[in-house]
């Protein structure tokens, strides 16, 4: 007797259910998608005991004809496609014909449907996939399906479900995603405690308000719809300073279908650039519309994954759409001052006594053998009718801390209050101030306070300086030559990584890497001079972590962690005490020609916070 058995339909369906029906949330997803495919404009979802005891989905769709009720629960029975070619232009959410059969095989199901073409309703009940009851029923329109006692006949599956409260939260998350993907449809979601989520239908912004609340919606930015390579991207992304500790608040919609996709996810997150801190994730709901024949939804039975014909096109379209949105918003948020022109500052001051460039500083230092060039600035104009304090009254014992201010390798000059330039001693009476505000002081030896136009600017002296130094390093970094390695570094690659390496090899060669292939193995023989000493394992691990992006490789981007570390070490530290003159010079070095302060440090931390007078009045209850 042979050893190969042909499984009967009951066993097959229960095994197939493991791929489609993982938990109550997946049942809700499949049932709601059927309602959406039926043209429903209103869907009501109710659960008991997290959906383990009962799930009920009611809609006002076109309904199911009586003759199709039994067929609807047969394996691979579907009204969505008729031939394999239909997959190339698939516009429905369901199409495999597995969901109802799988759900029915591991639960007790009752379906009542009124077909608009027949004008009457019918009922069918199944238990463990077997039909136990059929009859006419009364229902005005649409379909109501009730799933009870999930996994009653598969105790091994039942014991792996989580507590009812946890399963209920998973169902709620699934409903939120479905609402975001179908904002024009009205939804209600309820449990034993009543209605938890309610959406009356409308725009995507309305859906976000219903799902996350108005306060969260206020922190989202609309993505201006654009068309790149025939791919339209729209939706909402969070502001740069409104992040979440996980990716749970990220929704990706492709041709009306919510999916999980690393290409879109990576593109959106990379578009934020330096505005994101580590382990901080943006919130977004991105709606991507593209030709149906360029995306394959038939990857997994749960239909939560898709495969793109050209990942690079999708990555580029999403990246540009999100980046343009973030950059436009950041440019509207102005943290800075009006820098006074040189003519307003001090017409008589010699050029060599202005803020010096790196080259001028080096020449002056050689001439005078000074470690720090320290022209004096009159700041009395910032404090009318008062003599400017030198160090805000800090104890003299703390003044030694100011000597820790350092000259960075990229040429930013900071003052040491103990070193004086005798040639500029008289300049303190010339009324020079670097911006049209007032320095308030320094708190906690870390934050600089400046006031202007009824705003208080709180500047993190280390984060702001680190940003300035990082930008200067990035602007100057270049690979003038490649440094050969004493021993070539062998790369251990997967098939996907090898394909990606071949794709980006011309760019890596252009940047100064020398990589050779010998007998199917890859060896790094030389690296660009700035990359000498890199951790190869981490470097190439980070490179291959983003195989969807091959167009934006730069030496600065590849070496970002190293460059950030250099800038961090060279920057003023938190805890460095600054005198008033030092604060003046620090602010001058922070702002650009337009008086703008850097918004974020290279790690994504804020460098400046602006509080308006109104904020203080609200805190102190002067206004309500």
Task: Please tell me about this protein's structure.
The chain is α+β, with helices and mostly antiparallel strands and 624 residues long. It folds into four domains: 9-199, Histidine kinase-like ATPase, C-terminal domain (Heat Shock Protein 90, 2-Layer Sandwich); 219-332, Ribosomal Protein S5, domain 2; 342-474 and 572-619, MutL, C-terminal domain, dimerisation subdomain (formyl-coa transferase, domain 3, 2-Layer Sandwich); 478-558, MutL, C-terminal domain, regulatory subdomain (Ribosomal Protein S8, Chain: A, domain 1), CATH 3.30.1370.100. The protein is 31% helix and 23% strand. It has 19 helices and 24 strands. The strands form six sheets. The protein has an eight-stranded mixed sheet with strand order 5-4-3-6-2-1-7-8. A five-stranded mixed sheet has the order 9-10-15-12-13, with helices on both faces. A four-stranded antiparallel sheet has the order 18-19-20-24. Helix 1 packs across helix 4 (99-105), helix 2 packs parallel to helix 6 (164-181) and helix 13 (461-476) packs across helix 17 (560-570). The radius of gyration is 32 Å and the shape is globular. The termini are far apart.
SSE class:
alpha+beta
How much strand content do the residues show?
15-25%
Instruction: Give the overall shape, derived from the CA principal axes.
Output: globular
Determine the CATH superfamily of the largest domain: Histidine kinase-like ATPase, C-terminal domain
Q: The CATH topology of the largest domain is what?
A: Heat Shock Protein 90
Highest-level CATH class of the largest domain: Alpha Beta
Number of strands: 24
Total count of domains: 4
First-to-last CA distance: 86 Å
Largest sheet: number of strands, sense, barrel closure:
8 strands, mixed
What Rg, in angstroms, do the CA atoms define? 32 Å
**Taking strands numbered 1, 2, ... along the chain, how are they ordered across the largest sheet?**
5-4-3-6-2-1-7-8
CATH architecture of the largest domain: 2-Layer Sandwich
């Amino acid at each position: 007797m042979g050893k190969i058995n042909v499984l009967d339909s009951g066993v097959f369906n229960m095994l197939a259910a493991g791929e489609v029906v993982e938990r109550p949330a997946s049942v809700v997803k499949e049932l709601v998608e059927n309602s959406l495919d039926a043209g429903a404009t209103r869907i009501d979802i109710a659960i008991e005991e997290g959906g383990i005891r009962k799930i009920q989905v009611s809609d006002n769709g076109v309904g199911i004809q009586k003759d199709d009720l039994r067929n609807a629960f047969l394996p691979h029975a579907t009204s969505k496609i008729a031939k394999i070619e239909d997959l190339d232009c698939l516009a429905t959410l369901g199409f495999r014909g597995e969901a109802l059969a799988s759900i029915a095989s591991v639960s007790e199901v009752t379906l009542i449907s009124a077909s608009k073409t027949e004008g009457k309703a019918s009922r069918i009940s199944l238990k463990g996939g077997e039909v136990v009851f059929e009859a006419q029923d009364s229902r005005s329109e649409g379909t109501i399906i009730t799933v009870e006692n999930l996994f009653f006949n598969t105790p091994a599956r039942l014991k792996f479900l989580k507590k009812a409260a946890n399963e209920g939260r998973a169902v709620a998350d699934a409903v939120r995603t479905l609402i975001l993907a179908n904002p024009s449809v009205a939804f209600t979601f309820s449990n034993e405690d009543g209605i938890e989520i309610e959406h009356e239908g409308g725009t995507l912004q309305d859906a976000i308000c219903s799902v996350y609340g108005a306060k969260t919606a206020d922190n989202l930015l609309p993505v201006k719809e654009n068309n790149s390579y025939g791919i339209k991207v729209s939706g909402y992304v969070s502001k740069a300073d409104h992040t979440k500790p996980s990716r749970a608040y990220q929704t990706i919609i492709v041709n009306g279908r919510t999916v999980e996709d690393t290409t879109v996810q990576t593109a959106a997150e990379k578009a934020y650039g330096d505005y994101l801190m580590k382990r901080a994730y943006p919130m977004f709901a991105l709606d991507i519309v593209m030709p149906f024949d360029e995306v394959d939804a038939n990857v997994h039975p749960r239909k939560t994954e898709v495969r793109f014909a050209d990942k690079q096109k999708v990555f580029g379209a999403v990246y540009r759409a999100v980046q343009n949105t973030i950059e436009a918003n950041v440019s509207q948020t102005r943290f800075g001052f009006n820098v006074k022109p040189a003519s307003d500052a001090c017409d008589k001051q010699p050029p060599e006594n202005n803020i010096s460039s790196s080259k001028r500083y080096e020449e002056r230092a050689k001439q005078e053998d000074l470690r720090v060039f320290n022209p004096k600035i009159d700041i009395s104009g910032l404090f009318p009718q008062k003599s400017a304090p030198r160090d805000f009254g800090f104890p003299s014992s703390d003044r030694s801390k100011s000597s820790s201010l350092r000259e960075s390798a990229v040429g930013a000059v900071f003052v040491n209050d103990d070193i004086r330039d005798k040639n500029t001693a008289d300049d303190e009476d010339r009324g020079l101030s670097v911006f049209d505000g007032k320095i308030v002081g320094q708190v906690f030896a870390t934050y600089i306070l400046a006031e202007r136009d009824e705003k208080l600017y709180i500047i993190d002296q280390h984060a702001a300086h680190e940003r300035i130094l990082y930008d200067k390093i990035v602007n100057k970094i270049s690979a003038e030559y490649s440094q050969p390695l004493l021993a070539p570094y062998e790369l251990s690659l997967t098939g996907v990584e090898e394909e990606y390496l071949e794709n980006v090899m011309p760019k890596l060669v252009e940047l100064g890497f020398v990589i050779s292939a010998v007998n199917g193995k890859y060896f790094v023989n030389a690296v660009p001079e700035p990359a000498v000493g890199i951790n190869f394992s981490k470097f190439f691990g980070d490179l291959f972590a983003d195989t969807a992006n091959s167009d934006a490789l730069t030496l600065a981007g590849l070496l970002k962690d190293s460059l950030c570390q250099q800038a961090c070490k060279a920057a003023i530290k938190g805890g460095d005490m600054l005198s008033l003159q030092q604060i003046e010079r620090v602010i001058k070095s922070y702002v650009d020609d337009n008086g703008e302060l850097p918004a974020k440090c290279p790690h994504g931390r804020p460098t400046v916070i602006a509080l308006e007078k109104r904020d203080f009045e609200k805190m102190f209850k002067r206004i309500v």
